[in-house]
Amino acid sequence: MEDAVLIANNGPLNGQQWIIEGSLVIGRDVECDIVIPDRQVSRQHARITKGNNGVILEDLGSKNGTFLNNQVLSKPVKLVEADEIAIALTQTFLFLSSDATMPLSDLPPELSQVFRLRLDEGSRRVWVRGVELEPPLSNQQFVLLAYLYNRLGAVVSREQLIQAVWEDDTRWVTEQAFDALVRRLRERLNQLDPDYDYIVTVRGHGLRFQNEAH
User: Fold this and answer.
1) Which residue segments constitute the domains of the chain, with CATH numbers given?
2) What is the pLDDT of residue 98?
3) pLDDT of 36-64, one tens digit each?
4) Which of its termini does the chain have fewer beta carbons within 10 Å around, N or C?
């Protein structure tokens, strides 16, 4: 299992994120790995540990409790994709595993909004840092973005992307046409977020979509 990510939302740490590489202690004490400056939070409140069997969440005998998906945590539990963790109802976190299978578009709106970019496949609308992208993306631009968006962090080959965008009509798609589409999409996203690269080229392999919390 590669590194998983913990993203803070709905609390004093909103927008911050941590890569889970070993153990993270959450609490009020300044020596904790994640410090929540609130009296409702115990000095050492909870711990998240990455091991061979996955990522485990445990309460450390806190006074006001640790909650997982709105249920009080009574014993250590293995985290799964898109779990929501609440620390004393003061700070919530979203857990995302690196081998995620849940598309970002399937996350509840209140969770997907913590990311820099958000899209709605039903209405084909895109928001960058909370601002809607206008005019809307072209059909090919949106299909390309949505395909990458739902595979956050994964490297997707050019062949897969060409198939996704052009479907059965790929015989006449040149590398130049594909590169031009990617370039135009990057330019549109950079209109609202010029200092961030959402679409990263992995030479010899394809493209990777990154979408940090903001």
Assistant:
1) 4-97 (2.60.200.20), 117-209 (1.10.10.10)
2) 57
3) 999 999 999 999 999 988 999 999 999 99
4) N
What is the rounded distance in angstroms from the CA atom of residue 146 to the CA atom of residue 139?
Answer: 11
> Exposed, middle or buried, 210 (CB in 10 Å: 0-12/13-18/19+)?
middle
Write the secondary structure of 148-172 as one string of H (helix), E (strand) and C (coil): HHCCCCCEECHHHHHHHHHCCCCCC
Tell me the C-alpha distance between 148 and 103, whole Å: 10
**What tokens does 127 get?**
């928001």
Confidence (pLDDT) at 150:
85
Q: Residue 158 is encoded by which pair of tokens?
A: 């050019």
Tokens matching residue 125: 């609308």
- pLDDT of residue 111 exceeding 60, the answer is no
Structure tokens at 193: 């977020």
